[in-house]
Specification:
The chain is about 30% helix and about 15% strand. It has about 400 residues and is α/β, with parallel strands linked by helices. An eight-stranded mixed beta sheet has the order 11-10-12-1-13-14-4-15, sandwiched between helices. Strands 5, 6, 7, 8 and 9 form a five-stranded mixed beta sheet that branches. Pathway: Carbohydrate degradation; 2-deoxy-D-ribose 1-phosphate degradation; D-glyceraldehyde 3-phosphate and acetaldehyde from 2-deoxy-alpha-D-ribose 1-phosphate: step 1/2.
């Protein structure tokens, strides 16, 4: 069939969930179930949310939001999507969006990483590893607690979270970036599929500063992810010859598989929007998929339980929507969604098991309306349907609903 849309622009607002999932009681923030979590809803309720452009697209039509009204004549189709996979982390969410069903959750390390793994990293790196931070830790608090010691000793700071990640914090003046990246690549190699310590991501967390309270993480973060367990719709698009362009950490999340052009890592979410706009203007990008991740929502505001900062970040993106929409062609479609929740008003500092929002826009839409509740992978099923390529393992296309 003929394509309805020549280009698809997909933005993931990392962690911007929109209400507890039906199975939220089976997922926990430490000992508290995720029941009652609602990232966007609680931000709207507790600190207010002024997003006139999202309101025009139909964000307020998805679920009641205190400060975002429903729209009788929205510019876009909207709904919320439920996760099928067993997890609430970045990779599980993104992989499911592109058609994979992750049945076995990645292992996590609530008591820290085993001594045997740490000893191997020490032998490879030639640096000692502090044992005290080897546990789930706030990424900023761990710098305040151990950053000065790293300056004095050159030891590595390794910590984790409720997610299946191993994070290495390194002061750029003490441990050069090239060395940090080399260590992370080694850790990736020994924690891959089949390893007894299989991990979803190894994250390089460089920072600068000289004293507690003044340390700042830099944009030189790198994520070393597992390759997806199977082919995704990205692979099917690439195999069919369509451009698949990534912005932000999308390339890392999929280990580059199925992506044939990467616009690089974001210095900030607004820098990510700038990179997106540059990609939209590429003369060779006449059809295909542009896939964008904006991570500050999660990393800077969700995990740090900062609802005001989270609100401001959503409002900043809202302010750029007219610019994005203006850059779209008549047969483009914009989809804005999330990958999990991270309610900044909730207990703990972990992700939350939530529905994700989906709002869409196209200049070709006639009379948009709310869509039925679906699942994460419906996004990729719709994209695959549009470009007449193979769909993923799961997902149902809603392409025919878009008039």
């Amino acid at each position: 069939m003929a394509k309805k849309f020549g280009r698809v622009h997909l933005i993931v607002m990392d962690s911007a969930g929109i209400g507890e999932a039906p199975d939220a009681n089976k997922f926990f923030n430490h000992e508290t179930p995720d029941t009652g979590s609602n990232t966007i809803g609680h931000i709207s309720e507790q600190v207010g949310l002024d997003v006139p452009n999202f309101q025009k697209l139909g964000l307020g039509n998805i679920t009641p939001l205190k400060t975002v009204a429903p729209n009788d004549k929205p510019l876009g189709y909207s709904t919320k999507l439920q996760e099928v996979s067993n997890g609430k982390d970045t990779m599980t969410g993104h992989w499911e969006i592109m058609g994979l069903d992750i049945k076995n959750p990645f292992p996590v390390y609530p008591d820290g990483f085993p001594e045997e793994l740490l000893t191997k990293i020490e032998a490879f790196s030639g640096r000692k590893i502090m044992r005290e931070p080897n546990k789930p830790y706030s990424g900023t608090q761990v710098l305040d607690d151990f950053g000065e010691r790293q300056i004095e000793t050159g030891e590595l700071i390794i910590y984790t979270s409720a997610d299946p990640v191993l994070q290495i914090a390194a002061n750029e003046a003490i441990i050069p970036l090239d060395e940090l990246y080399k260590i992370c690549e080694y850790v990736r190699d020994i924690t891959n599929i089949g390893s007894e310590w299989m991990l979803g991501r190894i994250i390089a967390r460089p920072y600068v500063g000289t004293k507690a309270g003044a340390f700042e993480r830099t944009p030189n973060r790198r994520d070393y992810a597992l390759a997806p367990f199977g082919p995704t719709v990205l692979n099917h698009l690439d195999d069919a010859g369509f451009p698949v362009i990534s912005v932000g950490k999308i390339h890392d999340i999929y280990e580059g598989q199925g992506i044939n052009k990467d616009m690089g890592h974001n210095l900030s979410d607004m820098d990510g929007v700038d990179r997106m706009l540059k990609a939209m203007a590429l003369p060779e990008f006449n059809e295909g998929l542009l896939f964008v991740n904006l991570v500050d929502f999660d990393a800077k505001y969700g995990h740090r339980r900062n609802p005001e900062g989270y609100r401001d970040a959503i409002q900043d993106l809202d302010g750029r929507l007219p610019e994005i929409m203006e850059a779209m062609r008549e047969d483009d479609i914009l989809m804005i969604t999330a990958d999990h929740g991270n309610d900044p008003t909730f207990v703990g500092t972990d992700h939350t098991r939530e529905y994700i929002p989906l709002v869409t826009f196209s200049k070709a839409f006639k009379e948009p309306k709310p869509l039925p509740i679906g699942h994460f992978a419906d996004i990729s099923a719709t994209i695959a349907d549009n470009f007449d390529v193979k769909a993923g393992e799961i997902g149902e296309s809603f392409l025919d609903e878009l008039v």
